[in-house]
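Hi support team,

I'm opening this ticket because the web form for multi-chain structure prediction keeps timing out on my end. I have pasted the exact lines I submitted so you can reproduce it. The total is 436 residues across two entries, so I didn't expect it to be a heavy job. Is there a limit I'm missing, or should I split the entries? Thanks in advance, R.K.
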Amino acid sequence: MSFLELRMVSKSYGAGAAEVEAIRDVDLSVERGSLVAVMGPSGSGKSTLLTIAGSLEDPTRGEVVIGGRSLSVMSRNDKARLRRRTVGYVFQDFNLLAGLTAGENVALPLELDGVPARRARSAGVSALEQLGIAERAERYPDELSGGERQRVAIARAVVGERSLLLADEPSGALDSTNSEAVMRMILAACRRGVAAVVVTHDAQLASWADRVVFIRDGRIVDQTVPPPAPESLLEDVTGPSQQR
Amino acid sequence: MSVRHALLALLSEGPKYGLQLRQEFEESTGEVWPLNVGQVYTTLQRLERDELIESDDGEAEAGPQKAFRITGAGREELESWLSTPPDMTSPPRDELVIKVLAALRVPGVSVHDVIQAHRRYLVELMQQWTRLKEDEADFDLTFALVGDAELFRLDSVVRWLDAADGRLKRAELEAPGLKTGPIFRRRLVAPR
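Hello R.K., no limit was hit. The queue was backed up. Here is the completed structure from your submission:
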């Protein structure tokens, strides 16, 4: 069963003649353990789709269901709790709090959710450990490299029992080695059972996904079919096996 | 890639047998380019004729048990090949480019749909390469390098499609019903 479902979701801004439809009739479902990329150019509505999927914004029409619960029947408090406990975000510019150390940044969502500070900190450190930067836990964001900051942001997004990871151009301005590392981390979270959506314009990032959905002018226009087993590609590349 | 120079590169490490050369060739190209045995021995014979390699026994047939080593001339040839850029100046006869240009002229066909069909195919191919890289990269450096090369190549084509899509959309907004001129209104000449 899908963990995240968008059913005929539309979002408009403004009214009357000035009304702009950012996304229209979007259907999208993401299972636990799977990574879906939404690929489209700037202004195609992909970031709007992500903020609606994460309950940061309400759709104008349609329904969003997370973990079997429809957001339309949730109170503001329910949604806030859902955002703290279930949904993790990764933003292009990391959005780390400058006055907190890496460890404190990662522990923050748990502490906000009422987890005692000591337990939250140790969960934070173990999330950083998984991403290979536990030794940077006491550093402040401005003492970290771009790649390290993004690892902290991913640790913050997956800390605790989060089961939905939403990432908006998660490799930002990182170089290709660091971008690859970021996607490997997101994929690793998926393989542990997280459902993840990455929105991007970058085909190399998107190609890490189990499924790529193409968005154009606010509509989903196409999607990839699941890739066949790797062996079939080798056959493709090399042609029929030659006589040895 | 030239089989001839790949064999010279392998022999630059030290003398080797024919069979060994075939195996190492496959390994060094990330096993994406299997070579048939005949191709290896024919190439070795030609290299020997051109005095770029030599064997212990010049008379015997090139075969699995014959050892080869690189000569001074072979080493010079190899070094000059390594630092000579391959010819990248191809005239714009790329099939994909032609299809997109042709789609502009066919009534009832949306060029954006044509672009998307190609984009999807390319991204699917990229997914397959990325999947291979995910499995292999940790322990096979050669394969990771070959995979990256393929991914960057495919990515550049997707980027071109994205750019073309955007450029066409802007053109349509500025001049609805826009018709293109004849294909290649200006002659493109490959730089020398």
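A quick check on our side: Residues 3-83 of chain B form a domain with the Arc Repressor Mutant, subunit A fold (CATH 1.10.10.10). Let us know if the file doesn't open in your viewer.
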